């Protein structure tokens, strides 16, 4: 069993929003590894970062991704930083992966300046820029489909992903 498509990209690129619409369009289930991690830990991503630290979150995340890649056959959205794990990158090699691209100014607008995202609490714009610059080559190296999302509504992003999917 393998997901129909795995969505990757930085915070605000629309993995969760687009993923749900895409799953409906394809008539398959939607799954989000941030939600899976929260279910296992019994607390929010923000609380895991505060109480247990980012390293523990990344361990839980890598395990959630491994499980979802093996169990889920619908649309799977990963947390923005899931691709930082080497084990996850290796696992993704055999999957249909779509990278949702976004520019810095749109990303800042979408995540909001008072962000609930734990990595972006202090100075979201500069944190996002650093994170996006460091991860861009990784997202690109893993993706079979790349979709620019800046000038597109979620529905239009879904159209582009569907065009790129193997029949
Ligand atoms: N193509 C789009 N156009 C306009 N707004 C969008 C688009 N995609 C997502 N959004 C909005 O941007 C915000 C962030 O989207 P979303 O939560 O789906 O991002 P994400 O990639 O899942 O982020 P994270 O990595 O933090 O989980 C939401 O308010 C969503 O409605
Ligand atoms: O980009 C990231 O590193 C993150 C993105 C979110 O999806 C969450 O997984 C968490 O806030 C970390
Ligand atoms: Mg999300």
From TrEMBL:
Keyword ATP-binding: yes
Subcellular location: Cytoplasm
Binding site for substrate: 34, 58, 80, 135
Gene this chain is encoded by: aroK
Similarity comment: Belongs to the shikimate kinase family.
The record's free-text note on cofactor binding: Binds 1 Mg(2+) ion per subunit.
Known pathway: Metabolic intermediate biosynthesis; chorismate biosynthesis; chorismate from D-erythrose 4-phosphate and phosphoenolpyruvate: step 5/7
Cofactor(s) the protein needs: Mg(2+)
EC number: 2.7.1.71
Key word Nucleotide-binding present: yes
SUPFAM superfamilies: P-loop containing nucleoside triphosphate hydrolases
Primary role: Catalyzes the specific phosphorylation of the 3-hydroxyl group of shikimic acid using ATP as a cosubstrate.
Binding site for ATP: 12-17, 117, 152
Key words, A-Z: Amino-acid biosynthesis, Aromatic amino acid biosynthesis, ATP-binding, Cytoplasm, Kinase, Magnesium, Metal-binding, Nucleotide-binding, Transferase
Top-level taxon of origin: Bacteria
Subunit and partners: Monomer.
Residues at which Mg(2+) binds: 16
Molecular-function GO terms, alphabetical: kinase activity
Name of the protein in question: Shikimate kinase
Catalytic activity: shikimate + ATP = 3-phosphoshikimate + ADP + H(+)
Annotated coiled-coil segments of the chain: none
């Amino acid at each position: 069993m393998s997901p129909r498509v795995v969505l990757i990209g930085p915070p605000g690129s629309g993995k969760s929003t687009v993923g749900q619409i895409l799953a409906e369009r394809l008539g398959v289930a939607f799954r989000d590894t941030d939600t899976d991690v929260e279910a296992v830990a019994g607390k929010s991503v923000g609380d895991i970062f505060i109480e247990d630290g980012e390293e523990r979150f990344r361990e839980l995340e890598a395990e959630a991704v491994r499980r979802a890649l093996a169990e889920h056959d619908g649309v799977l959205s990963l947390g923005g930083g899931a691709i930082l794990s080497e084990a996850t990158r290796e696992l993704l090699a055999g999957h249909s992966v779509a990278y949702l691209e976004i520019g810095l100014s749109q990303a800042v607008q979408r995540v909001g300046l008072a962000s609930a995202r734990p990595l972006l609490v202090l100075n979201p714009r500069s944190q996002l820029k650093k994170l996006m610059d460091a991860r861009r080559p990784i997202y690109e190296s893993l993706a079979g489909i790349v979709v620019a999302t800046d000038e597109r509504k979620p529905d239009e992003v879904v159209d582009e992903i569907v065009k790129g999917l193997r029949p």
